[in-house]
Amino acid sequence: MKPSSGDPRDCYDFETLWQWVEDLQELATVQQELVTCSNKQCYIADKLYRQLDEKITLLEQKAALLSEKLDLLLERIAQYEIAFSAASINDVRRLN
Fold first, then answer.
1. What is d(CA 62, CA 67) in angstroms, rounded to the nearest whole number?
2. Does the global pTM surpass 0.85?
3. Buried b (16+ CB within 10 A) or exposed e, 74-93
4. pLDDT (tens digit, 9 = 90+) per residue, 46-58?
5. First-to-final CA distance of the chain
6. Do residues 24 and 11 touch, judged by C-beta distance below 8 A?
7. For FRET with 9, which of 30, 38, 54, 80 sits at 20 to 30 Å CA-CA?
8. CA-based angle 6:10:16, to the nearest 5?
9. What residues have CB less than 8 Å from 3, skipping those under 6 apart?
């Protein structure tokens, strides 16, 4: 409980002044705990950001590898198509 004016110099009752000091210490402790929690949240958020950034990098690498694999598969399909066409032409020639 603080003095009615809010100024500790206006308080002449030691008990009231001491209670006010205890209340202020309690508030300071709560604020310190809030700052600590906020710092922990910032640390965790930073850690999560780094992990997400690493995952994005890995996903980009995986996408690049899959794109290369797709290109190789398309190239192989084109080779099979050429080989199949050549075999078909040879079969037609043999029948003639």
1. 9
2. no
3. eeeeeeeeeeeeeeeeeeee
4. 999 999 999 999 9
5. 112
6. no
7. 30
8. 75
9. 10, 11, 16, 17, 20
